[in-house]
Amino acid sequence: MSAPHDVVIIGSGFGGIGMAIRLLRAGVRDLVVLEKAGGLGGTWRDNTYPGAACDVPSHLYSFSFERKTDWSRRFPPQEEILDYLWHCARKYEVLPRIRFGTEVTGAEWDEAESLWRVGTSKGEIAARVLVSACGQLNRPVLPEIEGRDGFQGTAFHSSRWEHGADLAGKRVAVIGTGASAIQIVPELARTAARLHVFQRSAPYVIPKPDRPYRAWERALLRTVPGVYAASRARIYAQYESRALGFVKYPKLMGAMAWRFRKRLEEQVADAELVERLRPDYPMGCKRILLSDDYYPAFGEEHVELVTEPIERVTASGVVTADGTERELDAIVYATGFASTEFLAPMRIVGRDGRELDKVWRDGGPSAHLGITVSGFPNLFLLYGPYTNLGHNSIIYMLESQFRYVVGCVAAMRRAGLDWIEVRPDVQDAFDARMQELLRATVWNSGCQSWYMTEDGRIVNNWPGFTFAYRRATRRPDPRDFLRGRNTAAA
């Protein structure tokens, strides 16, 4: 095995690329990014379905240190986001450090050498510091439906879109009504002969104020100092203000819910259909979605909303609980991701042989500031537990984490340390505080969502303002860590 690298990063989405850039700028040159796929981009590489786009405005859904003034639209489409990430990787010399087609199978802490021994599909690699940038939404979930594998038509998950399958003029089912489905349904409604949308839980869908940027606007952003920064600051403040309803005063969501109901009734003429599209839980409890063309799609005669539970899939279609079978040519599973399993299926073994998945299975996923885990020295998570948002840009949260990780690595170098590890009492206190705060949020108002584990514990979301998270991660506190040198090697 070759000499250990200073830092190994798992994943090359926004987290992995941004972390590599910040480390390189801090003088950490010996780093490697391991990517299981043949290209970078993470979720923006994988999700190429029709209509794929971001629901955060482009000026905020980008790195603060790499401004892009020529976005085509207010809300960036998938292709442009992916191009932006490739641009960043090339410009900041990350691309030569990415090992594509290298899947990480696991990692084990070598106590004697103070190293992570990382198992990959191409052999073992050693790292002094290991950073997981796998994200929360990278492992697609297919529902456990009887007969699913016996369907004889075309079937795939929305994040594994089969572009070779021509669905025009076909009988198509979309199972699921989450963030991907509300973008897919209007696109399929334009071309499918018949479209059946199977809904288990109705989402809240609010307007998406999207439009192309005009040429003069892009010129202004590019040439006039301060205009881009002002646009970014305005969008940030607008979105950050929504945290009041999510995490501080959930009753404030009532006004937004009233506007939602009014708009739903304006967009859908059929009163019975309105009732079936109306969510039965408080607004914000699940992810709020943005679209201007989702509800109008159900006004088309060939588009059907199905709310009867699915009983089974047959070779030729889907049977619902009322006994109705709908004949189909294709099924699109827009059924989400294994959001609370963070590093799975990798086997991560820390100090004294403890396995991360078993530690988290007993108490639920937990990490101090969503970044460090007791018992796992020199391991840092990006977009880990308690760092997802319901109201603002995850890129802002990631940049806070970049700074914290860089601060930890720099502190280790200055002090000549081989390892640091968050103290268990510090992590436990943080976890208890998060659970206390989460109880008062709208996410804890009675629904089941992907923010929760199976037992109902919310582990994904940050229960506060993003600027509060940035303040909490401004610099690592040495008092939070156990630390040491490898005396055996010395």
From TrEMBL:
What the entry lists under Gene3D superfamilies is as follows: FAD/NAD(P)-binding domain (3.50.50.60)
EC numbers for this chain: 1.14.13.-
The answer to whether the entry has keyword Oxidoreductase is: yes
Q: Which GO terms describe its molecular function?
A: monooxygenase activity
Q: Which InterPro entries match?
A: FAD-bind_Monooxygenase_sf, FAD/NAD-bd_sf
Name of one Pfam family that matches: Pyr_redox_3
Tell me the leader sequence span.
none
Instruction: Give UniProt keywords alphabetically.
Output: Monooxygenase, Oxidoreductase
Q: Per its record, how is this protein called by name?
A: Flavin-containing monooxygenase
Q: Which organism is it from?
A: Actinomadura gamaensis
Q: What are the top taxonomic ranks of the organism?
A: Bacteria, Bacillati, Actinomycetota, Actinomycetes, Streptosporangiales
